[in-house]
């Protein structure tokens, strides 16, 4: 029997994944607070483009004020794909329309499972990481993938239960995601989550306060070395929190820490892998926080670099680069300074 799936947040990630789920015949409804986006999808379908070809998919879409209609057809799986700061209201909104055995999947940046569990309970929470997927909702009804698929060389999606066991519901999600790109079930959700947070914190803040895209940040020595230092700090905080951090860009956490501390061999290895990753990037690609800055939206910096700095304070592991970068991004966000590469030269 087909599951009724909704995506709370149908922008870049939610629109892209929800669109592909609908393309293979799943019962999908997209829900989003962007009125023009939902209106376009209602009348024309969602248009997916970029590195996986062109697709226009017809599917159901709802404005927020229309969500009440779901009481007639309870939801089996609700993917939360909003910004982290919108997690609570999105979860609360969809909670009352969940089927008795329905559950919520956090498909977001940062670490939001606990905040979702505070609303629906731990038994109704699954975590899902999309690592280096590279998508951009660049105009209403249109989502572009800006990175080449990972395929057999890099696992894009990792799905896990908070308790670490592999369950049928996790395996079903992996099966659907595998239609889009490589996916796996993980027994180490929290290690995957912190690894994803580390990777997000390496690029999002830099892009937001410099205006640079992913290619430019990787190619420029200054921003590339800054990313490595951010990775090292984040990993040390995560390890102090007790997480077994999964490899980042296929390299062990210890290699990133060594590189961040100036070990010549580790630094050469890390930079080599980062530069090799340019092959998967297009000129259009930039981290989500960089996209938000261009669109004049509130960023998630407090839930990325800001979270690393805050958790570092909790466990007594300083993360000064994350704290400094967060402060710079906020100044750009408030219009006190303009986005420019010089903003990171002193960091």
What is the third-level CATH name, the topology of the largest domain? Rossmann fold
CATH superfamily of the largest domain: NAD(P)-binding Rossmann-like Domain
User: How would you describe the shape?
Assistant: globular
Pick out the low-confidence regions: none
Q: Biggest sheet, open or closed, and with what strands and sense?
A: 8 strands, mixed
Query: How many helix segments?
Result: 13
Which structural class fits the helix and strand makeup?
alpha/beta
Q: Beta-sheet strand percentage?
A: 15-25%
Number of E-type strands: 12
- Using only C-alpha atoms, the radius of gyration works out to 19 Å
Main β-sheet, spatial strand arrangement? 5-2-1-6-7-8-11-12
Task: Give the H and E element order.
Answer: EHEHEEEEHEHEEEEHEHHHHHHHH
Distance between the termini: 54 Å
Q: Helicity range of the residues?
A: 40-55%
Explain what you see.
This protein has helices spanning 12-23, 35-44, 87-95, 113-120, 168-177, 189-210, 214-219, 221-240, 253-260, 264-276, 288-295, 305-315, 320-333, and strands at residues 4-8, 27-31, 46-50, 55-57, 60-62, 75-80, 98-106, 125-130, 135-139, 142-145, 157-161, 183-185. A hairpin with a 4-residue loop joins β3 (46-50) and β4. The chain folds into two domains: 4-187, 3-Layer(aba) Sandwich (Rossmann fold); 192-344, N-(1-d-carboxylethyl)-l-norvaline Dehydrogenase, domain 2, CATH 1.10.1040. The protein is built from 13 helices and twelve strands. The termini are far apart. It is globular and about 60 Å long. It is of the alpha/beta class and 347 residues long. α6 packs across α13, α8 (221-240) crosses α12 and α12 (305-315) packs antiparallel against α13 (320-333). The protein has an eight-stranded mixed β-sheet, sandwiched between helices. A four-stranded mixed β-sheet has the order 4-3-10-9.
